[in-house]
């Protein structure tokens, strides 16, 4: 009898022990779940998803819609065009059509629908009072009413660091800069950086001219000054965008001077290099994880005498927090001496394939050096 009672007590104890062990395990299991989940939530809140940096293949792919899946608060987009010159035939066309919006009528919808946070241009002419109306010559100016066209496509920042902004001297540069500023457009390429705050991230813009002799009233390339101004901008802003007016006209590839200056600016702290002047599209280069677009071609220009001078690209540069994560180029073709439209179909693919192949040629050149 005693042995039976003993066995019964032992059995009850085993059952109770198993029951409490299971409950304890369940509590521990739940605790483990909580501990496992919390670091993930904290990680997502503090650091978030980090998209990959752009590559040549991703830049020239058809897949850019994935940007729409990211938090809009953490995404900022900069659009940059090729050369804009509301002078000569364009200024003449504006007068003929009685509208400063005329050059931009076929591209404005895309600028409005893509809704970039910033639009950055190279303004290659002064906008002044009493500009002579002409459709020829190499001394450029545009009527002040052309400012309305820039506002129409949402221009935020304009660089005056080029070889024609000074065609009417320092007075013309200052008149243009004042006109831009009064219309809510920052003018860079004069002296140091201008800064735009986009959703809490500060973008600094610097512009430099490297064509012909130094031009009056604008920032011309001086290596030490370049490095000093980039260093100063980094104290005030989060992302440093540097534009150069550089290179050799009507060439597919950047010359050694362009590549040297692009690398120098990145080594000094620039995050993105925007190039213009050659009037042809030139390739991109990824250098130390930063992008150089050597030339965007023409955007609003009157060089109708060749296919390549009628072409350009608008670059859409997308940043996630402080990093460039996506680049998309939209090709344009210019008609009627100054009116661009965005290309579609096979012609669009032809322009982008050419730009990609020239970019690969830079990579091949680097590999051969090694």
Quick overview of this protein structure:
This protein has nine helices and 16 strands. The protein is α/β, with parallel strands linked by helices. Helix 7 packs parallel to helix 8 (256-268).
Overview of the molecule:
It is built from 9 helices and 16 strands. By secondary structure, it is of the alpha/beta class. It folds into 2 domains: 1-48; 56-369, Purple Acid Phosphatase, chain A, domain 2.
**Total number of helices:** 9
**CATH structural architecture of the largest domain:** 4-Layer Sandwich
Mean pLDDT: 88
CATH fold descriptor of the largest domain:
Purple Acid Phosphatase, chain A, domain 2
CATH class term of the largest domain? Alpha Beta
Strand content: 25-35%
Overall structural domain count: 2
Largest sheet: 8 strands, mixed
Based on DSSP secondary structure assignment, what is the total number of beta strands? 16
SSE inventory with pairings:
Layout: H1 2-46, H2 56-59, E1 75-84, H3 88-97, H4 108-114, E2 118-123, E3 127-128, E4 142-143, H5 147-152, E5 157-159, H6 169-182, E6 186-188, E7 194-198, E8 201-209, H7 223-236, E9 239-245, H8 256-268, E10 272-276, E11 281-287, E12 290-296, E13 298-300, E14 311-320, E15 323-335, E16 339-342, H9 345-369
Parallel strand pairs: 1-2, 1-13, 2-5, 3-4, 5-6, 8-9, 9-10, 10-12
Antiparallel strand pairs: 1-14, 7-8, 11-12, 14-15, 15-16
Helix pairs in contact: 7-8
List keywords for this structure.
370 residues; alpha/beta; Purple Acid Phosphatase, chain A, domain 2; 2 domains; eight-stranded mixed β-sheet; six-stranded mixed β-sheet; 9 helices; globular; disordered N terminus
